[in-house]
Amino acid sequence: MMSVRRVMSRLLLSAPRTSYRALCTATDTTSAKPVSNPQLEQQKAFLASVVETLPNAITAARIQGGNAPSGGEMVLEVPSNVTVPVLRFLKLHSSSQFKCFIQATAVDYPELKERFRVVYSLLSTRFNARIRVQTYVDEVTPVESATKVFKGADWFEREVWDMYGVFFHSHPDLRRILTDYGFEGHPQRKDFPLSGYVEVRYDDAEKRVVQEPVEIAQEYRSFDYSTPWEVFPEGTRPKDAVQLEQSEKKPE
Amino acid sequence: MLRTLARRAFTPSIRSFASQIREPGPVGLYAGDDPRATLRELYKRTLDAVKSIPETATYRVNVEKITNYRMGIVKENEDIAKIENALSVGQIQEVIEQAEDELELIPHMVEWKPWEMKEGEKPVVINVVD
């Protein structure tokens, strides 16, 4: 009857001995040839062909996070008046076939003149590829609704309207989707306070829910915006992001 | 027994396409009686439609390349499985769908003209960003 120790030692002897040191020095650093990522090359080739096919419709094209070994994400930036033609091209053209609509969202950059970045994400199951199409709009510029190309954009555009106030014209039914009926304001804008402007409570005298100005006492919080991590602003903001002009902020 | 006979006589039979559908095939996509003829017709229409785009436009060049390549494969091979393997973009029903989509796209591209660049404007450079 073999003891446990003997069994273990037998197993270890039979297993191939790979020294940890050998694993560490597996790559030969003297002949430092950069390993090309085939997926990244494919993405670059695809973006290049899109830019060549639609030159006047693309204001920027990049691969975000492309230097990571797992590959990056393709991003196309377009002017706000051509979102639907670009989405239609990506969906219907044989070498792109991004037929699956994933989501539409928005981001608020209040320091930009065109503060809302509307983002459409698409997936091509045929070629196993994802792409993002982005536009920048301000509060009053409408964007054409993507519902004529992708039915799935319906509720996502309603959410962007509700949360940011970006209007989608030719949308079949653009109304609020997440906020309360009669709610005023667009909550995901950066200038909308965290606790909002109104709070609701049930009033026994009126026998209904009433809205009152919010009374949550929040003490003054000062934010130190420096982070301990290195910041790479390139790729998330346009290079020539215009600072809000000082004259707009000066009191009359 | 009479009822089953009556049902069989009057229900439309999808099994007339049996030779074109390989199980399991995509639900709801029917290739029709002669998918090769359908494809040839669609590609012919595509090549006609794309003539209204200027010859130098990349879109026209690409569409013509793709369509001619696919049409060549369809013409050469009688066997549908061979066509599907050669093209490797899915089953024949999906190839038909892709041809229909491309045909649908062309009039929009003709109207939109994304290839026209103003004087001095250049297409953007692609950045790989961390």
Number of helices of chain B: 5
Largest interface: A-B, 37 and 30 residues
The number of E-state strands of chain A comes to 9
CATH H level of the domain at 38-177 in chain A: which superfamily? NADH:ubiquinone oxidoreductase Nqo5 subunit
CATH class identity of the domain at 38-177 in chain A = Alpha Beta
Number of helices, where a helix is a run of at least 4 consecutive DSSP H or I residues of chain A: 6
Membrane topology (chain B): Peripheral membrane protein
Pfam families (chain B): ETC_C1_NDUFA5
Subcellular location (chain B): Mitochondrion inner membrane
Keywords (chain B): Electron transport, Membrane, Mitochondrion, Mitochondrion inner membrane, Respiratory chain, Transport, Ubiquinone
List keywords for this structure.
heterodimer; A: 252 residues; alpha/beta; Beta Polymerase, domain 2; 5-stranded mixed sheet; two-stranded parallel sheet; 6 helices; 23% helix; disordered C terminus; B: 130 residues; mainly alpha; ubiquinone (chain B); NDUFA5 (chain B); NADH dehydrogenase [ubiquinone] 1 alpha subcomplex subunit 5 (chain B); respiratory chain (chain B); transport (chain B)
Q: What's this entry about, in short?
A:
The complex is a heterodimer of chains A (252) and B (130). Chain A is of the alpha/beta class.
Layout of helices and strands, plus pairs?
The complex is a heterodimer of chains A (252) and B (130).
Chain A: H1 4-14, H2 20-24, H3 38-53, E1 60-64, E2 73-77, H4 83-92, E3 100-108, E4 116-124, E5 129-137, E6 143-144, H5 153-164, E7 168-169, E8 198-203, E9 208-213, H6 246-249
Chain B: H1 2-10, H2 35-49, H3 58-76, H4 80-87, H5 92-112, E1 126-129
Helix pairs in contact in B: 2-3, 2-5
If you had to describe this structure to a student in words, what would you say it looks like?
In chain A, β1 and β2 form a beta hairpin. Chain A has a five-stranded mixed β-sheet with strand order 1-2-5-4-3. A two-stranded parallel sheet of chain A has the order 6-7. In chain A, strands 8-9 form a two-stranded antiparallel sheet. Chain A has helices at 4-14, 20-24, 38-53, 83-92, 153-164, 246-249; strands at residues 60-64, 73-77, 100-108, 116-124, 129-137, 143-144, 168-169, 198-203, 208-213. Chain A has 252 residues and is of the alpha/beta class. Chain B has 130 residues and is mainly α. In chain B, α2 (35-49) packs antiparallel against α3 (58-76). Chains A and B meet through α3, β1 and α4 of A and α3, α5 and β1 of B. β1 (60-64) of chain A pairs parallel with β1 (126-129) of chain B.
